[in-house]
Design a protein that fits this description.
heterodimer, A: 141 residues, alpha/beta, Rossmann fold, 5 strands, B: 508 residues, alpha+beta, Beta-Lactamase, seven-stranded mixed beta sheet, 14 helices, 18 strands, 42% helix
Amino acid sequence: MVMVSGIPSFTEPFNEDECMGEVNRDIVAIVDDDDAVRDSLRFLVEVAGHKVEAFSAAAEFLAADLRHIACLVLDQHMPAMTGLQLAEQLRTTNPAIPIMLITGSPSPAIVARANGLGIEIVLEKPPAEADILNFIAAHKP
Amino acid sequence: MAIPPSTTADPVLPGHALQQYWRLAETACNIGTWRWDPETDAFACSTPAAALLGLPGTGAVTREQFLARFDPADRDAVALAIGAALAGRDATVDAMPAGPDGHVGQLRLVGSIAPVAAGQPRHVLGLLFPTPRGDAHNAPNRLLRAIVASSDDAIISKTVGGIITSWNPGAERIFGYAAEEIIGQPIAILAVPGLENEMPSILDRLRAGEKIDHYETTRIHKNGSVLHISLTVSPIYDDAGRMIGASKVARDITAARAAEVALRDAEKRLWEQHQELVHVARLSELGQMAATLGHEVNQPLTAIGNYLRAGQRLLAADDPANRPKIEEAIRRAADQALRAGEIIRRLRTLARRGESDPRPEPIAVIIEEATSLAEIEARQRGVHVQVEPDQSGQQVMADRVQIQQVLLNLIRNAVEAMDGQTQREVLVTTAVLADTVEVSVADTGPGLPAQVRDKLFQPFVTTKSSGMGIGLSICQKIIQSHDGRLWVEANPGGGTIFKFTLRLTPPT
């Protein structure tokens, strides 16, 4: 777990742990249609010392530049496109991005589908802080 | 000898001259004599008396046999007169003899107790003769008697003092008393205890010239049960125009009354069942809403957890510069706690039980309250609910929770109707008409097949694979109980529009 003091600055373009030849994958993406959940996740993850980019819809995320995305914190229940539908598309375009799926009702069907798509972890709402931050720490270079 | 035999010297005709006078009178006026000895119950009749009554001879008969020679309808009156004579009063009664009409006509019987010497048994002496012609019009004729005897209604006459003087078979049937046990009794026997004053007041009203016509009241049966009767009372006048009694016709309306009460009870039970059904439907609504709202409450809980964990981290760093950020985390967490509370509050309102509680409410508030829950559910299914808020500022008389129930149902139906469609929108609008507001819930679904539309508001009609199909029938009952109307129209742009009206109420 990363402990920091104060709020990290987002003006630095690159992280020290830059991988050779590639742009820094140091941004945690959050996709959730609920304003409060999204804002609070961003707040927590930023306080924990990570850079965050938040999206209120799946389409918005898929249209963004994903080269800096280290990992994805994804809500399942969203109108238009669900978390699993997003994950399915992402697996075809950016299969390397690790995904944490958060759902209010982790039914066996959702868990099975998540496993099928190779989603790293499925969390039930409300998720524990440690589970979120451990996931991010594990998948951020 | 024409004088009835006696075991003792007859004090009525002591002298020879009197006997001669009597024989002349007897023949000239067709007067019979009779004598009753209560000790032996022997009735002796003179030859004319026996002839008038159709008795085979002058031999003694019992009182019962004597009475049997009178028309059944008059026997009580005759017995009463004989009883009155025995009690020391002069008695007079007009009665028809038994048997076919015409052979003698109405008879008058008079009697009185014979003066007796000490130690002599008492006996009653009397005369029997055709009722004088001038009096005949006072006596009821056979037709009237037949009507009275065959009437289903009780036909009773009574004296001004309230003593019953006639009692037909209808009265026997309705009140349970036989004529012989009640004639001569006060009419107050029939009064419901505590209401005895009503009867004299009826007589007072009659005297005042008032008509008592189909007056509904209660009387008591011989067995103690209360009867509901409809009473028509007419005064009886003598030749001088004095009221000497009253004749009343009483119709037993107990059964009709009981049917009325049963109908009211049934209506009340039906209303209670309706209320219960509305509540059950709401509980089933609640069950569906619980899953939806469980998810909805998880959102603020998630946010609260995130903000508080972040605040904890900031505190642990022990840096004064973190203070504004900590405050922000706490403030946002508190806001989300309120949001969670609001969701729970709405769910609780929906679970409320009890009678319909209509009160004046602004249209805008009713619609907002009602659509807020439905919107949550619709959103989770990826359907947008657009509500055009009411701008009129008018009020309706409505039970908020029940209207919420209706709108939840209509919006859920709309959402479910659009499953698998590309264009999925629900539009809720209101329009104020003359004295009503019309609320519309329109969807962009495939529309309703005609055969479903016709039966839409019957219970257990559903196009859905799940659900009991009681939703719309309940909705309609709720709206009807609000004096409104619920109906369905085709959406011109494709889909279905459900519309209902609520009555406007002047702002208080």
